Amino acid sequence: MPDDFFNQLSDPANFQHPVNVTGQDKNLLFNQLESMLHIREAESCLATGKRDGFIGGPVHLGVGQEAVAVGVAGSLRKSDKVFGAHRSHSHVLAMGADVYRLFAEVLGKETGLSRGMGGSMHLWDKPNGFYGAVPIVSGTVSLAVGAGLAAKLQGSKDIGVSFLGDGAVEEGVVHESLNLARILNAPVLFVVENNLFASHMHISLRQPKASTARFAAANDLPYEIVDGNDAVAVHKAAAKLIANIREGRGPAFIEAITYRWYGHVDWREDIDVGVNRSSGDVSAWRKRDPIRRLADGMIQAGLCNDTFISELKSRTQQTISNAWQRALADPYPSSSALLTRVYASTGENRG
Amino acid sequence: MDNKYNYGTAMLAAFEYLLANYPEVFVIGQGLWSPWYVGNSMTNLEKKFGTARVIDTPVSESACTGAAVGAALAGMKPIVVHPRIDFMLYAMDAIVNQAAKWSHMFGGQASPAVTIRGIINRGGEQGAQHSQALQAWFAHIPGLRVVMPATVADARDLLISSVLSPDPVLFIDDRWLYDLEDTLPPIVEHNLALARPQCLQAGHDLTIVASGYSTRLALNAGQKLTGQGISAEIIDLRVLNPFYPELIVESVERTKHLLVIDGGWRTCGVAGEVIASVVERVSTSCFKKPPIRITLPDAPAPTSKVLENAYYPTVDLIVNCVNKLMH
Ligand SMILES: Cc1ncc(C[n+]2csc(CCOP(=O)(O)OP(=O)(O)O)c2C)c(N)n1
Ligand SMILES: [Mg+2]
């Protein structure tokens, strides 16, 4: 049965309908819409900034996948510990990071989230519960288990959260982490964003079955397979699983099926998009736009109208553009930063 | 037949030669069916030799490397490709505990003839986990041959020697060298066990030792130094383990000055090893000045361009150090 649902979800011809918002909290819906738009506009700005040569390093954009981060973050606290990977702008922004500081980081500025030492692929925002994103695939999955374990040992009800991709589950450490989390009953939520690709390779070339939730079942973790382009569906699944984790019932797993609109890295759609990915696929998936679908659902439910949506969009664009201009003007780290940040304790270095 | 190559197409020629002539050779690693991962060094191999022998993989460095070691034990000559050495760290057990140990541990009877290609791919604000040059770590491991081609000829010929060697070999190539051009003679197979450091420029004022991309820096610095009337002898290490210092010792005995450049970190690095190996072999009065090493500072790679510029050694830095050494 889960396989049937997965198969329906992985065909972009399905699930293009407006999100069903019945019974959902109104504030939550508006927050979700705003947050997704904010992330979309931020990443669109980064795409342009990369295209125009303002950004030196690689930028992995998650445009099209916003509902996953936003849907999960709605049930998280600032005291939770969230970990990500190379495609984590959405995760850190959904947790409440200042987009200006994200931009400054991507530009390598001293005012950035990682003080200009990390760029787009290495993000840190502890005050908002974001404990690190790094580009070694699955490099933070076991760390999230440890952060959950720490919360348990400290007697808090906080949880660890690991955002990972469908490619990441091919690394052995993910399976060790699922087993370890379960046997320790560590409070951790694994969120697999299954966008069907790991760089150029479609999942059918990498895994015998496309649904990664089978690994949750194998390790006895409760799991939900959800439409990753439906913020409400993601929210419902996350809220339920996270409540259980906080009650001490151990780790859980979400598989959210989604799709990235850009290529694996940087701003183009037609590069590194992969074996098996046609422009037809991309335009089909664009019809499952998580933002359009939530907006339509809210309009149908009489919560807002088209004018509201377009005003929200232009307000968001203004915020984003101000943040970008401000970050552009910021200073780079001084060259002493190269050596004084190697050890946290003393700032010592030996050249 | 066009005999003009660059460092990348020279490796491509080696792959083509090996796949065409040795049915037991196969290639496995991430990105092999993608034109974006490994520059121009493996273009269209899967179309020429088939996806059964040129295998793109799941994101599973550990299993792929271990599987290659196992296939080698069973008579194949696999080449595992890691598009960045940083990603290869998931495969440490297969490389260090398994491949490097099996010959000795089983009385010389096991021959894990695997070639592991780890690419150094740094710069471009990629940062700490996409930039590492870890040759020193691996050169520390007895049983693992470590090869670092600096020239177009070695990119082709040492790759062939590595794959034909009955021993496990880590072959480290560097994306900053891929545009280097040269004209090459037809392929001749060489025994990797006989490969030694090589003098790329004769000179009499000082000896500069380097490997991989650092050798290119040394050669470029050598040209500038010639213009300043300083004659540098430049020796390229080629094979870091096992390490044969004889040629370097002989050179330093003549020049009385030694500068070593390595693209890795300073502490416990290749440069320190080269200097120690020379110092313990020459007379105490040999050196006119203490030897100098140029390495990365002991810090992870930064991202910000301004910091990257301060991080990586340059030709000018080398020229300045030589001037200090000589005056
Ligand atoms: C250990 C390691 N291996 C390989 C890579 C290269 N790489 C970067 S992203 C990526 C694909 C990851 O796919 P997935 O986990 O599905 O995330 P997505 O890119 O789809 O968001 C790969 C193979 C890496 N960064 N780290
Ligand atoms: Mg993916």
Q: How would you describe this structure to a colleague?
A:
The complex is a heterodimer of chains A (351) and B (327). By secondary structure, chain A is an alpha/beta fold. Chain A has one domain: Rossmann fold. Helix content of chain A is 43%, strand content 11%. Chain A has 13 helices and 9 strands. In chain A, α3 packs parallel to α9. Chain A is globular. Chain B is globular, with a radius of gyration of 20 Å. In chain B, the strands form 3 sheets. In chain B, strands 3-2-4-5-7-6-12 form a 7-stranded mixed β-sheet, sandwiched between helices. Chain B folds into 2 domains: 192 residues, Rossmann fold, CATH 3.40.50.970; 129 residues, Rossmann fold, CATH 3.40.50. Chain B has 327 residues and is an alpha/beta fold. The mean pLDDT of chain B is 97. In chain B, α2 links the parallel β2 and β3. Classes of the chains: A alpha/beta (351), B alpha/beta (327). The interface between A and B is large, with 45 and 38 residues. The structure holds thiamine diphosphate and magnesium ion (MG).
CATH architecture of chain A: 3-Layer(aba) Sandwich
Strand order of the largest sheet of chain B: 3-2-4-5-7-6-12
CATH T-level topology of chain A: Rossmann fold
Euclidean distance between termini CA atoms of chain B: 50 Å
The top level CATH class name of chain A: Alpha Beta
Mean pLDDT of chain B, rounded to whole units? 97
Order of SSEs of chain A, N→C?
A: HHHEHHEEHEHEEEHEHEHHHH
* Backbone shape of chain A: globular
Overall tally of domains of chain A:
1
Output the CATH homologous superfamily of chain A: Thiamin diphosphate (ThDP)-binding fold, Pyr/PP domains
Spans of at least 5 consecutive residues with low confidence of chain A: none
The oligomeric state is heterodimer
Number of helices of chain A: 13
**Strand fraction of chain B:** 15-25%
Largest sheet of chain B: 7 strands, mixed
Largest interface: A-B, 45 and 38 residues
Whole-number tally of structural domains of chain B: 2
The name of the CATH superfamily of the largest domain in chain B reads Thiamin diphosphate (ThDP)-binding fold, Pyr/PP domains
CATH third-tier fold name of the largest domain in chain B? Rossmann fold
